Amino acid sequence: MLEEVGEPYETVWLEYQADMKAPDYLKINPMGKVPALQHRGAIITEASAICAYLAAAFEEKNLMPAKDSPALAAYFRWLFFAAGPLEMAVTVKSMDWPVKEENSRSLGYGEYATTLNAIEAALAPGPYICGEQFTAADVYVGMHLEFSMLFGNLEKREAFEAYVQRLRESPAYQRAQQICQEKSQTQSA
After folding, report:
1. Is the pLDDT at 189 greater than 70, yes or no?
2. Residue 179 lies in a domain
3. What is the distance of C-alpha 22 from the center of its chain?
4. Do 79 and 131 have their domain in common?
5. What is the domain range of residue 149?
6. Structural domain includes residue 186
7. Is 101's pLDDT higher than 90?
């Protein structure tokens, strides 16, 4: 998302677990999770919140639909759908937690297949989650779909793979991947 915004930023790399659970970082995020963003004296955690915040903070970058656009509803709907029902459905599946049919209505996502069908239907008009405009919601939804398919926690559907492939073509996505690859190479050297 920071690459999509295109403004200068500083990345602080943390060692998994050790640095993330250190007292200094726990002051930033008491959960000891990444990512966390410090901007204008505020701390923002949770990837979906970071995406929404950056889109609003840098409104001129057009990473969210205009306030008077009907697409704004889709933007918020699918951004938070991915952070809620989709994440929960994928987590339950990846942990192989049994869910009795009669209990599914008590879950935030209902049923795994219903959740996937909903996101697939949302992508159908395309090319992005809000239609023609690429938004911060695409960064978040796309990340969820990409990582979940990569780790085998989400069934690969043609619509998901095509959507993720479109997102991979973004210069910002490619820059972010390059940054991560370079960091990985320096750590292993």
Report:
1. no
2. no
3. 25
4. yes
5. 71-172
6. no
7. no
* 138 shares a domain with 88: yes
Q: Does residue 50 contact residue 108 with C-beta atoms inside 8 Å?
A: no
First to last CA, the chain: 28
Query: Residue 56: how many CB atoms within 10 A of its CB?
Result: 11
Q: What token pair was written down for 110?
A: 């209902």
* Geometric angle at alpha carbon 29, from 26 and 34, rounded to 5°: 110
Taking the C-alpha atoms of residue 76 and residue 119, their distance in angstroms, rounded to an integer, is 13
Of 40, 62, 84, the position where a domain reaches its end is: 62
* Residue 83 resides in a domain: yes
Q: Give the other-Cβ count within 10 Å of 59's Cβ.
A: 11
How far is residue 109's CA from residue 48's CA, in Å, rounded to a whole number? 17
Distances (CA, A) of 181 to 18, 62, 145: 21, 28, 20
Q: How many domains does the chain have?
A: 2
Question: Bridge-partner residues for 39, per DSSP?
Answer: 42
pLDDT, residue 19, reads 93
Q: What value does the CA radius of gyration of the chain take, rounded to a whole number of Å?
A: 17
126: which 2 tokens? 């395309």
Cα-based distances in Å from 83 to 3, 7, 19, 102, 181: 21, 25, 25, 24, 26
Asked, for residue 101, whether it belongs to a domain, the answer is: yes
**pLDDT, tens digit (0-9, with 9 covering 90-100), for 134-161:** 999 999 999 999 999 999 999 999 999 9
Residue with tokens 């192989």: 96
